[in-house]
Model the fold of this input.
Amino acid sequence: MYDLETRQRALALVAQGRSLNSVSKQTGISRYALRAWRIQLEPTSRTTACPRCAPAPRPPEDIAAYAYLLGLYLGDGCVSHLRKGVYFLRIACADAWPGLIDACESAMRAVRPDNSVCRVQRQGCVMVTGYSKHWPCLFPQHGPGKKHQRPIVLEAWQREIVVSHPWEFIRGLVHSDGCRITNWTTKIIAGETKRYEYPRYFFTNRSDDIRKLCTGTLDRVGVAWRQTNAWNISVARRASVALMDAHVGPKY
Done:
């Protein structure tokens, strides 16, 4: 009676801790159906091999997509336990950026192609949500509490991916916790006040460790930056902004 997308959206509401009764009232789907779907959740994820769980652990197959998803996760993502070893990865994407929502979903599907991904509408944002037993394997930074209240350190295999795909990682960070804006200033030339506009990138995160991951990667690709306050990284030099425009660009 219900298509796959309807089931995924209903299960995403259940995964948020909502009762079956409240989800049933909101969606019109019976509690019996919701309960049955929850029991059957992700049969493929139990048998699908995880590259990190293999006898010889290896990186994900699509490491470019993983580098981008890692940046998104460190910015606006979380991994939460659902039940019986199943976890869900959620990335918050503002409604204002539909292209970002699409890119996030594509990356999540590329990293775990055999697992379900859906979108859950919240006020002002979409939670792109994927289910898998293996999100903690792929994002070992997962843990209790907020990311800025605990150490965030990449494992050796993750560092290798960031080194090999630095721009994808930077793009994920900026798309989650950053922006490209146009600043302006005025100058008096020959007695006349003229207005000048110039583009600028910002990345803002409360975690010292995540900001260091960002600035270290910016250093590696030759982007000049400065810290403007306790949480904020700015890229404003013309050559560096040009590099960011070529490889990252504004959200859309």
Q: What stands out?
A: Residues 42-47 have pLDDT under 50 and may be disordered. Residues 63-76 form the longest helix (14 residues). Strands lie at 77-83, 86-94, 117-122, 125-132, 178-189, 192-204, 226-227, 232-235. Residues 1-40 form one domain.
